[in-house]
Design a protein that fits this description.
Length: 245
């Protein structure tokens, strides 16, 4: 059960990843250890148009400027079609690619490769990586009104599609300039045993303000970081949906 819960928590962090295709401004997040508040890494997200797609490139670097990881996320319209994350120093690579009615999930960990193709019908949209933030944007009003929503997410950590639920956090957790959402497992038994991931957005721009939970990156011992990642509000943002992990 412990291993199962860990994989669920890891997946939650992945689906709340940092990204934006709505603004071409670079976005920088600072991650600190959730318990000690010690800086762990900085993530720098930049955007470009490539072959008709908006592509976000992310570089994760330590305080001494060592490269931890690189990631690419490709958007078509308001959804993510594919992404790839590479951590060379621990020999880890993962990716998800959307095709017409299927998803292909790949992972290569220390030379051991895995691949799985999952059929997806039209009635069950599966969200990939930073596409979670588009989901928040599309359902912003319902979430603010207190509705709990269910969604399917592609999880490289589990090589499968996982059902999660998203809701507004208790108002006591909100600040004047942010609204906070909680994301956790849709399964009620598992939900009782794990702590929700918290994701804060600036109310004026709907830009990501912070992410609190398990990181998508691993340390030298291949353990996932537990982090809080903070973002300054970009006043020039012209459209909602800036998100991060």
């Amino acid at each position: 059960m412990t291993k199962h819960l860990a994989s669920i928590s890891i997946f939650l962090s992945m689906s709340a990843s940092l990204a934006s295709h709505a603004s071409q401004h670079d976005l920088i997040g600072t991650a600190v250890n959730l318990k000690t508040n010690v800086p762990l890494y900085t993530e720098h997200h930049s955007f470009a148009e490539e072959n008709g797609e908006t592509v976000m490139t992310t570089r994760y670097t330590t305080p001494d400027n060592r490269l931890l990881a690189e990631r690419k996320v490709a958007y078509e319209g308001d959804r993510v079609n594919r992404y790839e994350l590479i951590q060379e120093f621990i020999d880890h690579q993962e990716s998800v690619a959307r095709e017409q009615q299927s998803l292909t999930i790949r992972e290569n960990r220390q030379g051991v490769a895995k691949q799985k193709t999952i059929d997806v019908d039209d009635e069950k949209e599966v969200i990939i990586d930073a596409g979670f933030n588009n989901f928040i944007e599309r359902n912003w009003d319902q979430l603010l009104d207190g509705k709990t929503l269910k969604a399917h997410f592609a999880s490289p950590a589990r090589m499968s599609v996982v059902k999660l639920q998203i809701s507004r956090a208790p108002k006591k957790e909100q600040q004047d300039n942010t609204v906070v959402f909680e994301m956790t497992a849709a399964n009620p038994i598992i939900r009782l045993l794990i702590k929700p991931v918290e994701i804060g957005f600036y109310t004026s721009s709907k830009q990501l303000a912070f992410y609190k939970g398990v990181s998508n990156l691993r340390d030298e011992s291949r353990e996932y970081f537990n982090v809080k990642i903070s973002f300054d509000e970009q006043q020039a943002v012209s459209s909602p949906t800036l998100a991060a992990r």
